[in-house]
Amino acid sequence: MLSIKQFCEQLEVSRTTVLYYERKGLITPAARTPNGYRQYGERELERFRAILAYRSYGIPVSEIESLLQQSQDEDRDVVLRQQFAALDLEIQKLRQQQQSIMALLKEPELLNQGLLTKERWTEILKESGMDEQGMINWHKRFEQMEPLGHLKFLKSLNIDEDEIEQIRAWSRKP
Questions:
Q1: Per-residue pLDDT reduced to its tens digit, 18-33
Q2: CA 147, CA 155: separation in Å to the nearest integer?
Q3: Do residues 33 and 85 both lie within one domain?
Q4: What's the domain count of the chain?
Q5: Which residues constitute the signal peptide according to the record (predicted)?
Q6: Which listed residue, 28, 86, 106, 134, has the most CB atoms within 10 A of its CB?
């Protein structure tokens, strides 16, 4: 049996990390000594390694318990494939944002001089390979991450206030 210190050393994690997952109900000590010290065995080591692996895949803590309880590899595969698809979608969104920024960087004087219009910006995005849904997603991300920056950007495109409010309103919807 391992003390919590030995357990942490073997897994290369902090005591706080172990206690966090214990509070979440994902790990429990195999036993306690008469004076209350936690003790962990090989089973707990393997379980904690699985927790760390799932977290490294980006799987939320709330979903890890069900993964740990599933004995069927097929069930586990479904969850991992779903996470893979979610990560792939996130990567696509980030690439679209990169394309938008790169397009703007090629013509920064447009933004600095107030020469960039809504029409020109749309054209730049289309030329960078972004479709209509990609542009909608771009606005939603911008509004979510930097609402004031999004507002300033829309104003810099010389869009009237009513249209800006409409764009921001649908950008806030999930």
A1: 999 999 999 999 999 9
A2: 12
A3: no
A4: 2
A5: none
A6: 134
Query: In which domain, by residue range, is 52 found?
Result: 2-69
What tokens appear for 113 in the block? Answer: 């001089």
Question: Does an H or E element contain 167, and which?
Answer: helix 161-172
Query: CATH number of the domain that 29 lies in?
Result: 1.10.1660.10
pTM over 0.90: no
d(CA 2, CA 14): 15
Candidates 44, 64, 67, 46; CA nearest to 55 is 64
> Could you identify the residue written with the tokens 């994902």?
26
Q: Do the beta carbons of residue 54 and residue 64 sit within 8 Å?
A: yes
Q: How many CB atoms lie within 10 A of CB 154?
A: 22
Residue at a domain's end among 36, 69, 102: 69
